[in-house]
Amino acid sequence: MRRAIIAGNWKMHKTGPEAVQLAKELLNRVSDVSNIEIVVCPPFTALESVAWVLGEGPVKIGAQNMHWADEGAYTGEVAAKMLLTIGCRYVILGHSERRAHFGESNSIVNKKLKAALATSLVPIVCVGEKLGEREKGQTEAVVQGHVVGAFEGLSPADLQSVILAYEPVWAIGTGKTASPEQANEVHAFIRDLLKKSFGESLARDIRIQYGGSVKPENAASLLSQPEIDGALVGGASLDAESFSQIIKAVT
Ligand code: PGA
Predict the structure, then answer these.
(1) CA distance linking residue 22 with residue 62, whole number of Å
(2) Fewer CB within a 10 Å sphere, N or C end of the chain?
(3) What's the pLDDT at 175?
(4) Does the beta carbon of 231 sit less than 6 angstroms from any atom of ligand 1?
(5) 18 in catalytic set
């Protein structure tokens, strides 16, 4: 059985004090949840203070991005070990907003993935097609390109801790969600692809989250799909009550 994982991507929202407040409100609501992996990904500036609030409780902390180098002359960037030493355990890689606004290519995602794995951060690798690509019937080809590109040069053993997030770009922040069946179909396609390239056991065990306008109202129907192992939540994770309702929608 794959353990469900619900992650909140706070994007470029919340100052330090606001993030601390949100983390406290969330902790109050989910302190009794034990069978679900819960992660929040605040902006860099709030990671350390949120890590203090969350302590060893049920909510873990992740970053939204990192650089691939150990250290060096990369003004404005943050390295994996800097994240680890302040209590970060996860990192989102290849989010569509990074691909769209910051030129992040599959090969950059691949370099970051290797660096994250080398420091034992748990990577959440995002893949997903744009609206035009779906309309042209290119969903599978695009998703395949993202997965194969990100996993290039890695073995099934390397990939054991990796989490994938299928996020159709047209569903992110738009209020449009893929139907549970549409999402499940792409998840099944990804699992099949992984089976062919990396073998049965990785394909069976890897967790694939769905992301794109997940809300309390649609969470249960998405999360009840057999191939959907959790959710990567943007907007609705900025409110402790709606995020906790999504967590509790895992059955
Ligand atoms: P959304 O964002 O839930 O606001 O659509 C999801 C994401 O970008 O990860």
Answers:
(1) 15
(2) N
(3) 86
(4) no
(5) no
Take residue 170 and report the two structure tokens written for it: 């047209």
Nearest to 141 by CA among 159, 128, 153, 155: 128
Domains of the chain: 5-248 (3.20.20.70)
Residue 251 has pLDDT above 80, yes or no: no
Tens-digit pLDDT profile for residues 130-167: 999 999 999 999 999 999 999 999 999 999 999 999 99
Catalytic, 167? Answer yes
Distance (Å, whole) CA 219 – CA 202? 26
Residue 7: which residues within 8 A CB-CB, separation 6 or more? 38, 39, 40, 41, 62, 90, 92, 124, 165, 209, 230, 231, 232, 233, 237
Residue 11 alpha carbon to ligand 1 centre in Å: 9
CB 164 within 8 A of CB 209: yes
Which residues sit opposite 127 in a β-bridge? 166
Residue matched to tokens 């943007």 = 234
Overall average pLDDT of the 182-202 stretch: 97
| Cα end-to-end span (Å), the chain | 13
Helix or strand (DSSP H, E) at 230: strand 230-233
Cβ–ligand 1 contact at 213 (below 6 Å): yes
- Which residue type does 67 have? H
Q: Dihedral of CA 10/66/173/30: which sign?
A: negative
- Which among 24, 83, 30, 84 is positioned nearest to 54, based on CA atoms? 24
